[in-house]
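ARCHIVE RECORD
Type: protein–small molecule complex
Small molecule: zinc ion
Source of inputs: curated submission
Record status: active
Notes field left blank by submitter.
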Amino acid sequence: MECEHARTALAAQVLGTLEEPEQESLGMHLDQCPACHSEWEELLGLLPLLDTVMPYELDGVPTPDPARAVELARRAEADRE
Ligand SMILES: [Zn+2]
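STRUCTURE (tokenized, with ligand):
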């Protein structure tokens, strides 16, 4: 897997949309490529942020209240199942 492809796959992985065979090649690339690996860790650090931001965007309602953000995140998760 090329770095360019790996970066795209990383984003998909974070969003939970990466296909299984891709996950495997991404994992192998991350093992061999320190640059992509640190990119991955950076994305992981953004995950908690995504959890609060995405439901906000989906609902189109401002969520200044963290408890409400958590509630929306749970609902978004339930919707996915
Ligand atoms: Zn790479």
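CURATOR ANNOTATION: The pocket of zinc ion is lined by residues 3, 6, 29, 33, 35-36 (CB under 6 Å).
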